[in-house]
Amino acid sequence: MEFIKVNKAYVKHIALIQLNRPKELNALNLQLMGEIRDNLKELDQDDEVRVIIITGDERAFAAGADIKQMAGKSTIDMWKVDQFSTWDQINKTRKPIIAAVSGFALGGGCELAMTCDMIVASETAQFGQPEIKIGVMPGAGGTQRLTKALGKAKAMELVLTGKFISAEEAYDYGLVNKVVPTEVYLKETVALASEIAAMSPIAVQMAKEAVKRSFEVPLEEGLHFERKNFYMLFSSEDQKEGMNAFVEKRKPDFKGR
Ligand code: CAA
Hints:
Could possibly oxidize fatty acids using specific components. The chain has 257 residues and is α/β, with parallel strands linked by helices.
């Protein structure tokens, strides 16, 4: 791997993917996104991994898709490469993914963070969709996910002016889960990941699936989907362990079965 670093066991049950193009502010070129896709696929299959963290570095989570790589491309070049198809794997990943964001999360970087399930932001984080300033528009979900998170008026402002919002503002809008001092943003993300990793991984993945479904389908269908997942969990050993542990007044030990 040239553009990311992966640690499958950063902490017990937690894998870390770190974008590693610091000089280019972690601009997301095709190869980097391919590396993310391939590694997410692998980590999703690895029973030891329960939660995945994606991070950049202090200065930048990612400053967007690689403008230099795209600058000379034609429509047909873009269509052939279909760069956003590599992003589908992020959305398909069953395990929870948390973005640990410091510095710039712009364009594709903001979209990458929003495609994750949760965002922990350092107080220096800045979010934005500045594509309009380079004559295009968001292409990896920005117009949809930002609008769902911020509402129409604010999303429209960001997408049409390219201006950034601070971590605090992003928190106020519900885009990020929490804002923490820069020195501890990764540590705080690991703490959140560890809380989730202590739960039944099957229940976590089915719950994640149901929450995500609420964005796709009408309420009735979402409720039906939720109920099916809820009932399905009663065939897991973890459900017996979780409920027995409660009755026996002890901590559950979930095995992911
Ligand atoms: N693509 C390619 N290279 C990038 C980049 C990007 N998105 N963002 C930054 N870089 C490179 C710069 O070209 C520069 O490289 P050189 O040293 O070789 O010149 C290096 O990273 C450092 O950047 P700056 O010198 O510009 O740093 P700065 O602190 O002055 O500014 C910034 C930081 C405001 C983030 C500025 O770099 C910037 O505006 N970057 C582009 C942001 C952007 O427009 N993102 C959207 C991209 S399109 C997209 O993402 C489409 C989509 O929907 C997927």
